[in-house]
Amino acid sequence: MSRTKFEFTDNIMYLKGVGPKRAKALEKLNILTMYDLLTHYPRAYEDWSRITPIIKLAFDDQAVIVGTLSRLEMRVAGTGLKIITAYLRDGTGQIKLTWFNQEYLMDKLSEGMRLVVIGKVKYDGWTGERTMNQINSFSILDDGEVPQLGIMPIYPATATLNQSFFRNAMRNLLSKMPTLEEILPQNILSGLNLISLDEATRAVHFPKSREHLSAARRRLAFDELFLIQCGLMLIKRQAQDERLGITHKKNGELVKKALESLPFELTKDQKKTFNTISKDMEKNLPMRRLIQGDVGSGKTAVAMLALVKTVENGYQGALMAPTEILASQHYEKFTKQLSDLGIRVGLLSAKITSSKKKREEVYRQIAEHEIDILIGTHAILQEGVQFAKLGLVVTDEQHRFGVSQRAKLEKKSEKIPDMLVMTATPIPRTMVLTVYGDLDVSLIKELPPGRKPIKTSFKSTRSRKKIYEFVREEILKGRQAYVVCPLIERSESEVMSQVDPATEIYEMLSNGIFKDFNCALIHGKLRPKAKDEIMEKFRAGEISVLVSTTVVEVGVDVPNATVMIVENAERFGLAQLHQLRGRVGRGSENSYCILVSDGKAENSKERLRAMETTTDGFKLADIDLKLRGPGQFFGEAQHGLPDLKIADVFRDVEVLVAASEAAEKYVTKEEDLAYYSDLRKNLAIAYGEKFRQITEA
Ligand code: ADP
Ligand code: MG
Description:
Elements: H1 19-27, H2 34-38, E1 44-47, E2 62-76, E3 82-89, E4 94-100, H3 105-108, E5 114-123, E6 130-141, E7 151-154, H4 163-176, H5 186-192, H6 197-205, H7 210-242, H8 253-261, H9 268-282, E8 288-293, H10 299-312, E9 316-320, H11 324-338, E10 345-348, H12 350-353, H13 356-367, E11 373-376, E12 390-396, H14 403-410, E13 418-423, H15 429-435, E14 440-444, E15 455-459, H16 464-476, E16 480-484, H17 502-511, E17 519-522, H18 528-539, E18 545-548, E19 561-566, H19 574-581, E20 592-596, H20 602-613, H21 617-634, H22 653-667, H23 673-687, H24 692-695
Parallel strand pairs: 4-6, 8-13, 8-14, 9-11, 9-12, 10-11, 12-13, 15-20, 16-18, 16-19, 17-18, 19-20
Antiparallel strand pairs: 1-7, 2-3, 2-5, 3-4, 5-6
Bound molecules: adenosine-5'-diphosphate (ADP) and magnesium ion.
């Protein structure tokens, strides 16, 4: 090769043994450059480290053998199939080797050669002999050469580019590649016992042993996750650097009064979280905090205190809820609790914004600081809403709002307001680190005292009669029930399926077993006004049985509802079922959640049984994540996980946590700024799109 300089960005075409034609084929695998090939990691490995004596081979063994070739011949079968056969002997015995339609091998092979062969031992139907006819790969040994044994890589390959192409190309690439400069600081390397980048890069393709391979994988997984974590930290830092936030004062009289006016004592977790939030708000950096807490753990109470704090400092606060019902529920609670303290609470909902006069009036009150705390839905995001002095924005139930909507809110005032995100969808730690790495996280794990656990049971449709009898008894005691269904109505594609949609269940119940009770049907296709009316009636106790879709999932508070039946429960994620279940158990009576499912899939039963045995939302989320994968868990579109080439956020949890901790220390140190330009470069190479906001800085 005349080229002496090696660049990762060089076209792969220039690698020895590739050329334009194969480069074209490589393009299909998204391999365009040397770097792309280098990071085309093996999808598996074959263990060539142990040679099996031929005499010990048994049928169906996958084995490595070494021996001398004899009786090489090729014949053409009646069907035109070209069959090469030969025998390999090693002193303990011999075995037949068979290749189909690879006549070019006749030029390569000759009797007396020594070969290393890896393949599967099969039974030859013609002769009854043992034969290897699924030969994964083999290599020819030179005179006196000791076979190169070890762990062999298996690459994602194509029809035209086979394993030996990749192995050779990779060997060429590695032999030309100069020793890679270490990019991680020595203290991280030694602290976490990581091997060097150069060694890991070579070893991931051709490891010396299993241990060597796992050390290599660990190092490269660390790099990948560390890079992402640093990226997220940079985003966070950049947001904080560029834009000075609001420095709140220490908690004073108003906050104290608000605390005293709460009808309960805060739990330990609530206190801790509020303290953390207070400290965040007192810094001049904008707060970016995620509060995770199970349904009913009392997040709203904490948010209310934070909002009071911003009001105490002469600012306005905003609370954004995902639905109209929730917004008005919050509005009522806040008004009741805070108006005695002289805090002016306002509501901005679709009902108000649909009348121009009312809307303009609320907009004016916001702009002229006649409202201290504004509660609303998406309506808060509308153009006309401009705050006089916005100090804190709380968004409830994060999973319904996108990151861009959060950003929109920030622009509603001159200074950067503090931001608090609350979510009741328990997100496992691994996911938090990768998806919300730009937010600080607080957990509220403990539930307020006196809650009775919800009794959950998993039943088949055969038990329906009994279930409904039970619901009747509850209603006769004066309680109310939810019946939740996955679909509104049967679509054409579902005509034959096993799903019972809400409309049909409603017809069946309201004309049948619950004929003498007030039943109602609520779903997302109803107009907001109609939905609100039904919810209002249910809340007032005028409706006993509410058949619904998941519209009741979020936040609605009806303490008198003690039973929830979930139809076709297998159709829901565990996190969602847990969220639904949180609608009952809000009062002092015993409550019940009955999951009805005939789902046959083994993992659907396993998932529903997990609902029976645990009430810990985080545990359930973990189980769900394991059984259904992150795509299902978050919904494909919104999970926002960067594509990982080697790390696996489930298998490599230990590495992920280490990477996150290392990144946190690393990116916050001023003196390491020089490293950032490299970091940005690496981020751009690996994840151009995902990290555009910082790689383009
Ligand atoms: P979340 O927003 O986390 O779902 P909420 O703040 O709505 O939870 O609280 C759920 C219910 O528990 C509300 O009725 C609230 O008044 C009550 N609550 C909150 N904190 C406490 C507490 N520390 N002790 C007793 N009840 C509480
Ligand atoms: Mg809530």
